Write the structure tokens for this entry.
Amino acid sequence: MDFTGLGMVYDYDLFVIGGGSGGVRAARRTAALGKKVGIAEESRYGGTCVIRGCVPKKLYVYASTFHESFEDAAGYGWTVGKTSFDWSKLVANKEAEITRLEGLYRKGLEGNNVEVFDTRAELRGTHDIWLRSEDRTVTAERIIIAVGGYPNPHEALEGHELGIVSDQAFDLEQLPESIVIAGAGYIAVEFAGIFNGLGVDTTILYRGPEILSGFDDDLRELLHAEYEKRGIKIITHQVFSKIEQASGGKKRAHLSGGDVLEVDEVMFALGRLPSTGSLGLELAGVETDDRGYIRVNEYSRTNVDNIWALGDVTDRVQLTPVAIHEAMCFVSTEYLNDPQRPDHDLIATAVFSHPEIGTVGLSEHDAAQKYGHLKVYSANFKPMKHTLSGRDSRMLMKLIVDAETDRVVGAHVLGPDAGEMAQLMAVSLKMGATKADFDRTMAVHPSAAEELVTMYDHSYEVKGGTRV
Ligand code: NDP
């Protein structure tokens, strides 16, 4: 319990709105320091990542890769019998696992004496939080808003209500025979890989020239080629013009180029929007940008002194580990007398496409904007596993080096376990590794990752933005 200079007593030292990765971490760590903490979540504890994001997605990615393993096994002498796939079993098993994780999140909170509310909470003032289920207002000295976001439902599109977003894709009653997914970012690309791997006739529809904008161009092109080899259709430079109900439960998707696709499901993966509507931000005077994301300073503090915002609702980098890191920095700054600004530099990331992408640092395009002279080391090869499996699949490794300092400024991998590699590449890049450091590191043999430390000669240079 804290006292203000005005003699006021608050119900809580800290109240957190939103029980996702960032909110739960901030609540748990603060309560562990002996502070009185409350948290409210209107849906399920664990938030987007655990309930309808990273965790179920990765489980579905695993599910979608088995059929290739069955095929690849033949080259290794195996005869695999008749196989079949049960979508409802996958959905039920996924549900059991996320329920288990949800329980752990809750237990972690309760075990640290956080008061856990299962309700929507809204701001009613700078220190006041209204709890809907109890229709009462509590007060807190500090407040964190960590309400995250939701998938863009593409409301401007005629017939958008016939489409689904990722939230629903996890729990479809039955696996569709065909789907068209709009967008070509993380979610579109990952779900396309999942549905294709589960045998669904899958199409990506993208407004731009190439999938995964912002990623290194070589990765984008190779993943495009790998997806097409697996039967995923990729339509670029087009968007939906309208969606209509067709017979037999199908949807008729009209494309801007005039084509019409008749499919079982239409999915939108067009980015996410902040869950800040009706949150009472205006009653507390919390500022947002024009898209509704909460504005924060480098310590995650909003324009209101006692209110912070963490994670996706601030639209800094929409990734779970980033939200958790921001929460840890908040606790350190506010309760441990050790000011910590979240470090958003050199964040490694994976796209769990199939094959997957792991990347850290700058793409060649972005590096060329920043550095006058680059040396690029690149290897494109058939992963060893596919020598005997006979699968036509390539792997790509790419290091981008600032020629002046020899520092590796970007490291990109496409292929099996690329996400795992990205984690360790990130440590090296964070430490400022040079290409010479990579060269003097002994290879792990035989592995794919050894390519990263054995690309002795550069493939080409980039000078003044042009490959030479
Ligand atoms: P992304 O921002 O990754 O991708 C959005 C896609 O939709 C882009 O291809 C974008 O095109 C396109 N788009 C946006 N608006 C429109 C529009 N009006 N009309 C047509 N196309 C449009 O968002 P996602 O929804 O895929 O994912 C949301 C966030 O979740 C990601 O940014 C990421 O931070 C996080 N995430 C992370 C994952 C991971 O770490 N593996 C997995 C899943 C999600 P353009 O590129 O041209 O702008």
Q: What stands out?
A: The radius of gyration is 24 Å. The mean pLDDT is 97.
